[in-house]
Specification:
About 75% of the residues lie in helices and about 0% in strands. It is mostly helical. The protein has one domain (about 25-100). The longest helix has about 35 residues, at about 65-100.
């Protein structure tokens, strides 16, 4: 299941994005709402991990790393998601400018 989640799903996401998302309609302000899911997931995982002692990823394992390191790791994750999101918007805007010429 882990293999499917971390290999097939990203590939399918890229295919579906290319087929169905009109990149030209994306705006940079769209990026903030896209960050809600990873932010909520990090918080949910931290709360669940505190209650159960199970953390699905080593970079958010508070029992091994401590809260400060997990917060730093989480910030890097949000930065990575932000960068990817900004890249997708930029590519959509690029497609628009290319199609306009």
């Amino acid at each position: 299941m882990d293999e499917l989640l971390h290999t097939a799903i990203p590939v399918l996401f890229i295919i579906l994005w290319r087929l169905y998302v009109r990149g030209q309609n994306l705006k940079y302000k769209d990026v903030l709402p896209w960050l809600i899911y990873p932010f909520v997931y990090i918080i949910f995982t931290a709360i669940r991990g505190e209650m159960t002692g199970y953390y699905p990823y080593p970079f958010i394992d508070v029992s091994q790393l401590g809260y400060l390191m997990v917060i730093i790791n989480s910030l890097w994750l949000i930065i990575a998601f932000s960068g990817l999101s900004l890249f997708l918007v930029a590519m959509g805007k690029r497609e628009k400018s290319v199609s306009d010429h």
